[in-house]
Amino acid sequence: MNTERIIIDTKDSRHALSAISGREESAHSFVQNVHISGNNEMNDYIAYQGTKIPLHTHDKGYELFYVQEGELTAVLGGYRAKVRPGDMLLIPPAMPHGFEYGQQTVWWEVMNGMFLWDRVWSLDRIFENCPEKYEDQTFREQYEKRKGQVSYPEFPIEGVTEVNAEKLPGFSGRGMCYKTYSFSGIQCRLKYPKWELAGKKEIWEFELDEQMSVDFGHYVGHELFAVTQGSVRVEVQGREPMTARKGELINIPNFTSHKLTALEAKTTLLDFNVQYNLMLLLDEIVFTKKKNPQRIDPVFLEELLDKHQCPYRAITGIFTR
């Protein structure tokens, strides 16, 4: 049986990838990538007050940040703004970006196609065994270019335009979304559509009423949720039921049936790995309800789920397979 940890407490130090005394920043790895695509590798990044990340770009892969605690100034694509808890940033390949931390800040970072864990792990070994190399800026830049496909522009991070956070490219603040779908007991908010992630996946926020449940069949890619409000009962095949609370992650291995049930009103989940066309599926349900509501029956819904390769088997109050 798959032994991956299902509920991940982000405050649990056993997940620490690097927490070396004297380092300016620390990254804790929660989810290691196990697929050649590098999809959904996740860590939290703890930056202390005064830390600065110089302006840089990545040749490939996407970074998604969710701010949990603290406050920072983000520079993206020539614009600078304050970013606060509940805000998200999506950084595509070749987007110049850098950060300045006004106070201690904790944020979740979801990597797609970048293999950050391997790069940070290697830097730890250099720090421990060859500290003179770690402090050598030329060596660090060469290493980053080889290992992480990172480039550092020559111009300074200060040469940018001050804006409100809403004007930052790739920004999605608390309450912001591309599109919202409201059903009985659940609100589905599309944070980032597929075209912003090279067609690979969508990123959603779901707000559920108490006892609202979602039942999943086998899903090819592993599921990765973050509980940002409330708590959730997690039932996974072959395991005892578990509870995930605010600030914890739900890491479901691939090809694993599972069911999530909200235990409190307004329980909110971020889903970082929706690889099927959920937006198109919900668009079709809404359109059909308006134009031809009598068509909404179990047969129609079964065909719709299969059409969009959706792994749901049941959602309280919406449909049942």
Structure description:
The chain has 321 residues and is of the alpha+beta class. 17% of the residues lie in helices and 41% in strands. It folds into two domains: 7-172, Jelly Rolls, CATH 2.60.120; 179-320, Jelly Rolls, CATH 2.60.120. A seven-stranded antiparallel β-sheet has the order 1-21-18-23-16-15-14, with helices on one face. A six-stranded antiparallel β-sheet has the order 2-3-10-5-8-13, covered by helices on one side. The longest helix has 14 residues, at 116-129. 33% of the residues are buried. Residues 16-24 have low confidence and may be disordered. Residues 50-100 form the Cupin type-2 domain. It holds the Pfam family Cupin_2. InterPro entries: Cupin_2, QDO-like, RmlC-like_jellyroll, RmlC_Cupin_sf.
Number of DSSP strand runs: 25
Instruction: Give me the CATH superfamily of the largest domain.
Output: Jelly Rolls
Helix percentage: 10-25%
Molecular shape = globular
Measured between the Cα atoms of the first and last residue, the distance is 26 Å
| CATH top level class name of the largest domain | Mainly Beta
* Low-confidence region ranges: 16-24
Largest sheet: 7 strands, antiparallel
Give the number of domains. 2
CATH topology of the largest domain: Jelly Rolls
Protein name: Cupin domain-containing protein
Domain Cupin type-2: 50-100
Pfam families: Cupin_2
InterPro entries: Cupin_2, QDO-like, RmlC-like_jellyroll, RmlC_Cupin_sf
